Amino acid sequence: MSKLQEVADLARVSKATVSRVINNHENVSAAARQSVWEAMRKLNLNANEMKRSHEGTMMIGLVLPLTSSIAANSFGMDILLGVEEKAFEKDYMVLVGNSSGPNKEKAVVSQMMARDVEGIILLSKNESSDHLLQLKQSGIPCVLVDQRVEGEHLHLVRGDNLSGAMNLTNYLFSLGHSNIAMVTPSRFSTYKDRIRGFQIALLERGIEAGPERLIDLDRDGISMEQAMRKLLDQEHRPTAVFIAQAADLLTAVQVIAEYRLQIPEDINLVTFDDVYSPLPAEYVDYFTSIIQPAKIMGGMAVELLFQQVKEPAGMQAQEIVLPGTLNIRKSTCPLA
């Protein structure tokens, strides 16, 4: 066992906290600092000896699912930029791990722990939380961003998906649309909240979100293409469709074109966030959407991470919810 780990175990803090104390870093609470010095005294160790055996990494980890289009995906990129900028202000570097792939999230988190990152920010797409329990037990500070993980009470910074979905749907009603449909996955918490927001907006007008209005891709086990054909083949097809996942926009546009329909004259489309690739150039900055403050999310996640460093024990899990902004563009218009 390393000297750093011995001190951390005795002081009941993380190795990252011990590293900060011996390097005289300011982001440590007085109580944690005292515990570390007391543990070092009992083990007959001094700061210089500890520094020689271990230098603080001054590094935090960011784990998120990266795809080939990450550079054009404003939401994912803005989270990354927000984390990096705030960490750099604090003289920290960011180790980025790609969790895209089966069981990869758990492996990436484990590797970051092994590399002594001093905290981890995680955009989790994993329904299993075993690795999060391991992370909590290690004492390494962790903040979730965007997605909740069921059954885990961890610090979280996310967007207000429920209110955003209500605002989008209500905007379509304000344009005169009443036959509004939604196509969405439901596996993750963000989409569950968007579904609820859509349902609430309809119920406020006495409209039930039946299967002809709400197509859940995960529940129904169909593709985005099949879902759009199902909607457009209806005798009274919807005049507006809420595409909950912006990555599905290209498929929606392609199917609408096959039916020789025009956006927005024949059918309005709304979505969340922006995904500019692989959409044709004419559809960049085209879709009415809720824009989430992803860069601010990333920065606030870093701040929350360092708050945990200052209070390594006893800090209650916090959930910070940031509202999005309705961005009206060319894909919507009043019902003719």
Automatic annotation (TrEMBL):
Give residue ranges for domain HTH lacI-type: 2-56
The keyword DNA-binding is assigned to this record:
yes
Name this polypeptide is given: LacI family DNA-binding transcriptional regulator
Matches recorded under InterPro entries? HTH_LacI, LacI/GalR-like_sensor, Lambda_DNA-bd_dom_sf, Peripla_BP_I
Transmembrane feature ranges: none
Cited Pfam families: LacI (PF00356), Peripla_BP_3 (PF13377)
Source superkingdom:
Bacteria
Q: Which GO terms describe its molecular function?
A: DNA binding
What keywords would UniProt list here?
Answer: DNA-binding, Transcription, Transcription regulation
